[in-house]
Queue: 4 jobs
Job 1
Amino acid sequence: MMRALIALGLAASLANAEADLDLILYGADGCVGHFAASHLAQQPNLKWAIAGRTKAKLEAVVADLAKEGGQSPKPEIIVSALDDKADMTWVARAKAVITGAGPFSVHGGEFLVKACAEAGVHYSDTSDEFYWQRWMIDRHDAAAQKSGAKLVLSSGFCAMAGDLGAQLTMASLGAAKGTEVALDAWLETYNGGLSAGVINTGKAIANASFPKEWNTDPYVLVPDVDAAHRVDTKVEGMSFPKYVSGEGLMVPNIFGPYDARLLRRSFAHLGQKVQLRVGAATSLYPKWTAFLATRPGSWNLKCPTQQVYTEGSWSYRFKASAGGKSETLLLSGKGDPGYHFTAWGLAETGLCLAGKTAGCAKAGAAGGVFPTMAALDADVLSKRLVSVDLLKVEKIAKAEDMIV
């Protein structure tokens, strides 16, 4: 009884606190977090803080930001662990809290989600662990709906690039509401360093305990999906390798299962009936291998070299079809996708949720646990990412011409 009263008191204090910061970045002393902090320091008139477990490491980040310069180079420092002993009232100081401190299932990520859900503070992360994402939906979606907090999962390269490309392509197709759309998402280029985050996430998934059927359920992140919208039977929408007419031979996309699960949650939130296939061009892996082989240090699992960070690149092609019509868009970008796009994507999602990018967070949308495109406006976000040179969007007349 006493624990319940304490929890209620904490929730009340969090909800009643007044935000004096636009944004708090947790895990700023990690590799992705440091890149995100560098981007945030360049933004004008940003009231923000960096947070983490170790004061000395956070002070080193602030010192680096001061050397780099920028329009907002002096964030406040907040020291906090993520465990059942931590005082989490600091989250209510911000309009939005973002975190790159993964894997989230093993580093106390739920404590931050819970605090934001109860305080009505918007949140985003770079999570890939689908079972953890399902736990967050099951455990905290109701509280977020009640408080109005938008809890946005996975705003890094996996899976924001896929979610954004899907919505832009379907919008360009312009199919009537309620029409079933066939959507193909093919990753064509992924030139970046080996990511410690991806490897550690893989280890976390291998060691996690969750219902076995979650592994093969395409709608594991949409447990309440309407039966009429349950159109896929495989997580990636198809088996590989497979020859696709007009496309060529398709193979698995290493990020495909993570992207697909979250994309389907966006489809459900947006009332879209979509048959989804997520794969990769056969040329992706030879090109990636050549990239790694010709850039010493690209396999450094702590943080990429400056060469890898700046010389990386990616491209992701989307084809939406319905009623005999189709539309194809190619999304691409410069820089290591696993670090550059992920770090800036996380930062830009935070700026959206904090209201620093006008019209980016969907107006009037209720709180809850969302993928990026269920909470953010695809058109506004894409234009913002183009403006900061993180994204390029091209309309492709003949999709088959893009397989090389």
Job 2
Amino acid sequence: MDIRDYIHHNLLSHPWFNTWIAATVAVLVSLVGYRIGVAILMRFTRKVPTLHAMVDKSRSAARWVVPLLALQGALQAAPDTLPGIGGVRHLTGLLIIAAVTWLLLRMVSGLLAGVLAAHPADVADNFHARSIHTQARVLARSAMVIILILGAAMMLLTFPGAKQVGASLLASAGVIGIVAGLATKPLFSNLIADVLVVEGEWGRVHEITGTYVVLRIWDDRSLILPLQYFIEKPFQNWTRNTAQLLGSVMFYVDYTMPIAELRQAVEGIVKAAPQWDGRFFNLQVTDTTERTIQVRVLCTAANSSLAFDLRCFVREGLVDYMQKNHPQSLPRLRFEGTAGLTTEAADAAAVRVTPQRPGPAPSPQPAG
């Protein structure tokens, strides 16, 4: 038997021959169409960053979805009497479900990347951007979980013995979506601005999962707290409605300090501070003791990090001003044991020291 007879009797006469040819052609044509389609979409979505990111992220998954759909189309056109056609169709169907699930996951990931890129958080006024980041991440995670459940349910529905399990899982996906929405509602209302003080630590919400929240502390540590913590326990939110903050600087001076001159000095220091947002500042005498006067400076900044730096700037400026212009008005401790001393000697007996009076508790230090 020569080669032509072998091909005729073993290949051309094989029941699968025409199906193999049709499937091969369909797959090759689909891959060409895939490349052309991706090139067109990548070009025409450049002006829409979110759609462009979705197309870019989805390319790897679409490279499998398109030829698998073409292959399944060729298999469906094959005669039902073809040996083993049912099993091949079933296997191809499972692969299509897995590939489509992967494609949807990549699309959600691309949509998230596009939204985050369209709202950068590395700007001075990033309150709105950080709010969008928090919402987008939570919604993307919820969508991905639901997509995975739907994919698994669709696969189980293709098996006769597991249809009931697949139907139950498919129905539970809707319930899970509702539960996820209710579960994330406290997060949207409490963590939408994501700059918090929790357990005495200042930080930003870095990651939100279905069971815990990761808070990135100002010194690059990570504080991991269960999700239930934010529902049951109180915490500080420094950016609930706005990122702007009012900072305070407390210090003590002697009774000889001229307050009017000090107020003028504070005005010059605050207005010279690059961190001040120009909204408000003042100086007030908030308390008096038998030895010193307590003075408080209030000043505003655009966000918590700038507010911390502004407080340090004002505090350093005031110390420098008093050292240079009113050193005699620094806090001092006077002793009255002056019997037998002249007036000059009694005045010289005043010893200048820093009183050991506790000040207000320091605020958590934000990231610089």
Job 3
Amino acid sequence: MKIIIGKNLLSKINKLFDFSKFSKIAVLTDENIQINLISQISQIKKSLNRDLIIITIPAGEKSGKNIETVKKIWKKMFELELDRQSLLINLGGGVICDMGGFAASTFMRGINFLNIPTTLLAQVDASVGGKTGIDFDEIKNAIGVFKNPIGVVIDVQTLKTLPKRELISAFGEIIKHGVISGRKNFGLVTSKKPEKFSQDELIKIIKQSIKIKSDIVKKDPKEKDLRKVLNFGHTIGHAIESLSWKSDKPLLHGESVTIGMIAETNLASSNLRGCTAKDFTLIKKAIVNAGLPTKVKDITLKDVIKIISSDKKNTDGIINWSLPKRIGKVLVNVNVQEDLVIEAIKSII
């Protein structure tokens, strides 16, 4: 898999990949994607001597990262007569990369796909790792497959129009990678407020985040053990994210992860194998300084417990936690007493 990161890459995408070998190429995107991004990659049609096929779906996870939307994508792919030699290009944020990857991986038992993530969160998280999926019955990413794209193109120029809240939200995953990797990278990604990093600095941060995740995934592609460190903050984070969709102020993914990180670091601190008070303070301070939330409103303990009890990472009804021992060391498959879990959840609601 080829991962290319830089500036103004979409304008020369024909030089980055050989598109002539595909019978047809479709682009999956959403209603929020800027027209100029589609026009930039439309040069691909020169390789095909035919127009690109555009498939547009509603924007946002709340509106349809589910099987009904995937069915519409599959139907469109059949109508357009895509075959097993076709390519699906996923142009958009994490929802497009996740759902497009899943649709491609299951269409006719699998066709190739290329990810072009246009949000910072997707660039550091959803675009790499080989996980594709959709939400089901209030459980995030409950249905999916492991399948890598043929490549990932990350053009930081796409971040120019990214809303400030979404830019800051992405630092939830970036700070998580910092906690996993160690104090040097943690210090780098928390050295400024997210909006103060230059494009060149963001390229460095994106490259580092992708390297951290890719190195882990190479060692454990199917999440048998080591890869579970990437779930830090996600067990509780995914639960509160799903629950927030019912409110008039739904949380973004990165915001949910940081709240989950606060709760799970708290949980680690109360566990004998867990995090020191000093590192808990450093992690919380980094999250606050980035402008990310540490608490969530209008969510009940009972509802959070219900969702985490159905988490796909559980085994025989036991929740397998990924908890930090310190910055630079996250333990996996940690079992924790229920009363400590309850107290950790109470700390963020």
Job 4
Amino acid sequence: MKLYLGIDVGAVTTKFAALDESDSLVASLYLPTGGEPVAAVQHGLKQLHRQIPPDAEISGVAATGSARYLAGAVVGADLVKNEITCQAVAAIHSVPDVQTVIEIGGQDSKIIIIRDGMVADFGLNTVCAAGTGSFLDHQAARLKMSIEEFSRRALLGTDSVRISGRCTVFAESDMVHKQQTGHRVDDIIYGLCRALASNYLSDIASGKDIRPPLVFQGGVAFNAGMVRAFREELDIEVIVPPRHEVMGAVGAALLVHERAPSGPGRFKGFGVSDVDYRTSSFICHACPGSCEIVRIMEDGRFVAAWGGRCDMWEQDTVK
């Protein structure tokens, strides 16, 4: 059995998706990155190896996400692709006539406008945490409830409580104030979801031509309160596809299948789970730009470097 592996390494979670030759999902993983992307990739590969059939052969690997270059160097990726492309490809595969994609992860948010099966426009936010999964997790913890209970109770709330969602600091202060003035917690939770959806639409999605079918992807799509909030804000149906949390990895796997090498791929094998990888950085003085370059070493041997304004360092030395 030939499999195509996509790896999406984000700031908060690391996702894996293995597709067969008919592009059916054979195995997937959704793991915390924990601030250690290399360790997360190695741990994920070890778990994935136990999920796939013993006779499976990895014929192509693609990496995406904020740590895509790092992940690509660790596993020996055949393809390294940006998140916008991977999310769009996965959405089209799941809902062929999709025209709008909302993707919200742990620390960033995106909107992708698709026309005739192609990305026509996009917007993203990687600076402010307002509206992302990490903020929702923090508020659930502050209220001493799981994110699952937070999601369930958001469906019980009404739209009577207005929360300032423009900033995480203001939103939290506003929630505390509403609690102290006696508002129901369920109403406050849903008020926050509604505020974050409104903030997303007025900021990241500002000026975008949002049309149905609309697909909601990323880990925050687990939150039923956010799904409800987007439906009410937009007054259109919001589609949450199966395995929405690993769609970036699915898109990466679809792309590497489409472009799979005719010969053996570059995948280093599942044994990389036990390799000692170290990362460090240095300043490149080849030009006045003085770029900070990140490099990765494998058992004391230089593997790859990247991070400059030019492509001088962005080439894998292990062929």
